[in-house]
Amino acid sequence: MHKKQVSIFIPDSFLSETSDLKIKTSKIGVIGRALALFKIDQIVIYKDLSQNDDKYVTDADFMADVLGYMDTPQYLRKKVFPIRSELKHVGILPPLRTPHHPTESDLKVGDYRQGFTVKRNKKGTYIDIGMKSDSGMKGMENLAFCKEQLSVNKVFSFRVTKLAKEVIVTPDEPDDVYWGYKTLSTHKSLKNSLKLVNPDFVVETTRYADTINSIFNEFEEKLDKVDNIAIVFGGPYSSISEDLSGFSWDLVKLNTIPSQGTETVRTEEAVISTLSIINMLLNFC
Questions:
Q1: In the chain, where does DSSP find H-type helix?
Q2: At the fourth CATH level, which superfamily is domain 5-96+186-284?
Q3: What tens digit of pLDDT does each residue of 52-67 get?
């Protein structure tokens, strides 16, 4: 089956109901786990225009950092994310346990690993791919080597091509397993953020739309025909305030929690409810 690209969009006001840094970190952790659980390709954090100012710019950047931290393999986190006070609660975040977060450090030819580019010379680039110090390999400081000159202090995906005196890797990414999500904080409106992704199909989640059970077959047919899907969510204080109709994408407004038992649905609850339905439709129907 052709792999569809699925992105979700959440507003920068997502954390506005609390000022507690630990609670904020925990709420982001719920989103990160949902992204991995349902194999989402990208999360985009957009500017909530209903709030009329820039007071959530810092929150947007914080969300992007925490989501990036979660997606980064444990063996690279200290290099990619130096100690910062705002990240002091990341220890409470649940692990993703996805294929790009290996639990074993032993390597074999053909393995894929994410790596951090440490040093570069005329011959290529030295990469930290999480090898143990007692691995027996004689590469520089237990680093793998790539024969391409890559930008340093960046994370790339690699495939192990040779195990000898040093570990040789080449830039590559598997296409048959889930390899994590990308995070984009745009500081732009929802409409302009959507234009950056250029989806075929936009699903706007709102309690004031048709319920999923009432348009199930029609919605399933729409999903089957498109390749690039964007699912958009509102914030704690309002539904989506922008009019998303009249653009190049096909738009459907959808209520994925019919007959909700609570007065309001939190964004993270809406994300999990919606993605569970779309995951079923994309994979099993």
A1: 21-37, 57-71, 77-80, 190-197, 216-225, 267-284
A2: SPOUT methyltransferase, trefoil knot domain (3.40.1280.10)
A3: 778 899 999 999 999 9
